[in-house]
Amino acid sequence: MRHLAFAAGVLAATSAVAETPKLTVYTYDSFVSEWGPGPAVEKAFEGICGCDLQFVGAGDGAALLARLKLEGKRTRADVVLGLDTNLSAAAAETGLFGKHGRAPQVDVPNPEDAAGVWKDPYFLPYDWGYFAFVHDKEKLPNPPKSFEELAASDVSIVIQDPRASTPGLGLLLWVKTVHGDKAGEVWARLADNIVTVTPGWSEAYGLFLDGEADMVLSYTTSPAYHRIAESDDSKGFAPFSQHYLQIELAGKIAATDQPELADMFLEFMLSEAFQSIIPTTNWMYPAIIPEAGLPEGFNPPLEAGRALLAPANTVSALRDEALVEWLNALSQ
Amino acid sequence: MAERAVAVNLRGASAWGAAAFVALFLLAPLGAVLWSADTIAGVLTRDWTTVRFTLLQAILSAGLSVALAVPVAKALARRRFLGRKLLITLLGAPFILPVIVAVLGLLAVFGKSGVVNQLLEAFGAPPITIYGLQGVVLAHVFFNLPLATRMILQGWQGIPGERFRLAASLGMRPWQVSRTLEWPMLRAVLPGAVMVIFALCLSSFAVAITLGGGPKATTIELAIYQSFRFDFDLGRAAMLAMVQLGLAVGATALALWLAAPPGFGAGLDRVVRRWDADSPWLRLVDGGVLVLAAVFLLVPLSLVILNGISGLGQVPGVVYKAAGISVVIALISTGLTIILALALARTGEIWGYLGLAISPMVIGTGLFLLINPVMNPNALALPTTALVNALMALPFAVRVLAPQMRAVEADYGRLADALGLRGWARLRWIILPRLRKPLGFSAGLAAALSMGDLGVVALFASPDWATLPLQMYRLMGAYRMEAAAGAGLILLVLSLVLFWIFDRGGRVDVDA
């Protein structure tokens, strides 16, 4: 009898699932982890959609795009969440994404257009942050305020490899957009400050916390994590005159069999319920600041004039040029 | 050469089957990547420096690991002391750690604010830096010295005790024992050990960039990774994978050509007492060697453990679930490794090495390409991870088993033939009892390696089925470094326990 009851239970469960429409969202690993935004977002969205929201994690942002290219038209994704503006042009080129048809007002710095305007037809932003060098305020009370100052100092840094990680790529574009043709020279002068280059953010941040370097390439919001989650106010970031932006994006797959649900998810993504989860789970700025404002202890964003971003359609060419300069400067 | 050290012609259905299995699951993915590539790019000239650095660090790492392992293995082979078995097990630990855990352990010793530099500072000496080629080689020696030691130790234990007894009764001096008994064994064992470690260092990627200090320390594996991730250039990735394959095959051919068969003949499987090594001077030398090796390997490990203990309280529940998943994968993978290794050990050794020669990134991607049209790759995350881990551990298992298997066949094969023992009966009565030690060691190694592997699971895993190393990285990605250190400790302990259980199982009632 117990077998029968078990079988009946399984059948009932599978038929119940079959009736609930399923929305599959591809994202990066840290988004879906228990301590990331994923679980809270899933709960909130399933509460209103009458659907089963499934996150699928695939490495980081770059790996996400690679995964989509691998799967091509056979992809099971309905929505992809976690690309950034450095990847969006390449993602749009795959032809897999459909237009979202929205023109939301967002609180994302926009170096190219009027504030609050969002014009990308394929991707919508859900959060953003500034790359910055994070340091220990006691050990390094006066951090350098520009790449020149950094290069002239004996402050040591850990950075990420632009060939293997999105923060590394962000730094590459940061130096390139600030220094243009002189970027190679700047890297050559920075060479003796670089303790080492790591494959990803985790390794670099781990080395920094273990005292291997004075500063690490991370985000302006990293100190907020230590302040809020660990009640530790010892970390700060070095304020440069301009900081390169990372804007994280989501888009829907054109061939999705759940177009309404996908649209509903994108709508939900820009709502208060989703946006208020972001700051203390993803440790980034929400794309639309919630009515209650940012959580206490969260760094207020730098003024928009200090934001730096290469236009999405130029990133690819810029990256190729900057990568060769980087390799040449640091292989000496 | 009178006799080949390694048989290359497959004999027997099981050997054929296993070789076909390995080739299918390693070469088909490579083929799938090539097939999916739009253009087959030649490897660019800028990759030449990459190839050169990859070779340089792999040669240095393999050479040093093995050179240092010889005195350590020798000391372990001829000394009996309290805690010897524990030491042997612990010495295996670095090899199975996820790279980032081991690197953080090494940095706690050799890093900027590590123990060594603090001591140097106290004595007013200039600090040393671990970053650069020296750091890469140091880390690779840290990882591979234990493996080399165990492989060479197996060789030492393979010399029948009667030979040492005879040498003693002939009044041979230690150097004469070295020349007549130990050198022929080393000739047979060392090339294989060098080759395995060389191939392992060839595909090193996280160690090489983290400790290499910058793009100077680029390896082929990083170039492959980049081709997939940022350029999505399957053609270039496949070409680079073939360069890596070529280098590994070259190294294997060289090792097989250099290796001489030992040919000691059969002993009575008795424990070895070493009359030649009784002098106080040799005791002192062996003691010193063992202390140095233990300090080098165990101090970084102890720091990993200390770090982990403080983070243990913050480890979230999902980590324990991930630990369970990793154990299951490790057990499946171990079973598969051992079956394949047994089938290949006698006549198909060379096929077992394929797993070392092909980039895991390429295998993972290729399998993904093959599975995706048929079904959701996420659904196959566990079996795929177990399979790939098994193929990755196979080279070690085969390397450890093959010489012993052939020795057993050479020594008892005719007797078994005369008795008409074939197939399972021959395995059951003749081979397995004599292979227990290397089998236990191989299984322990396979299980532990699988536990620590991050590899393909990152490509296949669905959120609910993450392995322990993957969860550890996720914790780090969420700034939770202390909890990650705690997860690292759990990983270390589980890997060691699995290793110990298998290795111990192989040595039950053959001790003394």
The parts of chain B where pLDDT drops under 50 for at least 5 residues are 1-5
Structural class of chain A: alpha/beta
Query: How many helix segments of chain A?
Result: 14
**Which secondary-structure class do the elements of chain B indicate?**
mainly alpha
**Principal-axis shape of chain A:** globular
**Oligomeric form:** heterodimer
The rough form of chain B would be described as: globular
Largest sheet of chain A: 12 strands, mixed
Overall pLDDT confidence of chain B: 83
What does this structure look like?
- The complex is a heterodimer of chains A (about 325) and B (about 500).
- In chain A, helix 7 packs across helix 8 and helix 7 packs across helix 14.
- The longest helix of chain A has 18 residues, at about 1-20.
- Chain A has about 325 residues and is of the alpha/beta class.
- Mean pLDDT of chain A is about 90; it is low at about 5-15.
- Helices cover about 40% and strands about 20% of the residues of chain A.
- Chain B is mainly alpha-helical and about 500 residues long.
- Helix content of chain B is about 75%, strand content about 0%.
- Chain B has helices at about 15-35, 45-80, 85-90, 95, 100-110, 115-120, 135-160, 160-170, 175-200, 205-210, 220-230, 235-260, 280-310, 315-345, 350, 355, 360-370, 380-420, 425-450, 455-460, 470-475, 480-505.
- The radius of gyration of chain B is 23 Å and the shape is globular.
- The interface between A and B is large, with 55 and 55 residues.
